[in-house]
Specification:
Elements: E1 4-9, H1 12-29, H2 34-54, E2 57-66, E3 69-78, H3 86-89, H4 103-110, E4 113-119, E5 123-131
Antiparallel strand pairs: 1-2, 2-3, 3-5, 4-5
Helix pairs in contact: 1-2, 2-4
Bound molecules: adenosine-5'-triphosphate and magnesium ion.
Length: 133
């Protein structure tokens, strides 16, 4: 099944595209029911952050493997301004944009694994995995 997709994120329409591609790929991988919705929602949030905070970037969707476990790996990357304080950014309600500040902590909560790396002036990368039950 070597399924792999990449979506360029530069506008609000691309958020919808990434969400749909993610849902399709997760379905192909064997995810069902509510898992499909939460994977799509996590993808939407990181894609929206690219549009809102970095203007443009990319979402890569691939198969994740660890031992006998299989799942979906989502990597959102951009060359935007970066995040000066990741701990603050991960708190519920923290937003530099008058947003609700729930995107990052929400995505972390929805997925099984969540990693964020960011460097001011260089950009941000979010890696998230969800394992098949
Ligand atoms: N890709 C990014 N590049 C630069 N800063 C980011 C990025 N993603 C998140 N941030 C920073 O982290 C903060 C928290 O992100 P989060 O998604 O939780 O909230 P929000 O985007 O402000 O609001 P919401 O997602 O609820 O609409 C943002 O306000 C922004 O300062
Ligand atoms: Mg957000």
């Amino acid at each position: 099944m070597g399924s792999e997709t990449s979506v360029t994120i530069a506008s609000v329409g691309d958020i919808v595209k990434a969400r749909q591609e993610g849902r399709a790929l997760a379905t192909e991988m064997g995810f069902v029911d509510s898992d499909l919705t939460l994977i799509a929602t996590a993808i939407s949030e990181v894609a929206r952050n690219i549009v809102d905070h970095a203007k443009s970037g990319e979402i890569r969707l691939t198969l994740a493997n660890h031992g006998s476990r299989r799942g979906i790996l989502i990597v959102a990357s951009d060359h935007g301004p970066g995040i000066p304080d990741i701990n603050r950014a991960m708190q519920y309600g923290f937003s530099t944009n008058k947003g609700l500040g729930v995107g990052l902590p929400g995505a972390k909560w929805l997925m099984d694994e969540f990693e964020i790396n960011s460097k001011v002036g260089e950009g941000t990368t979010v890696m998230m995995r969800k394992w098949l039950p």
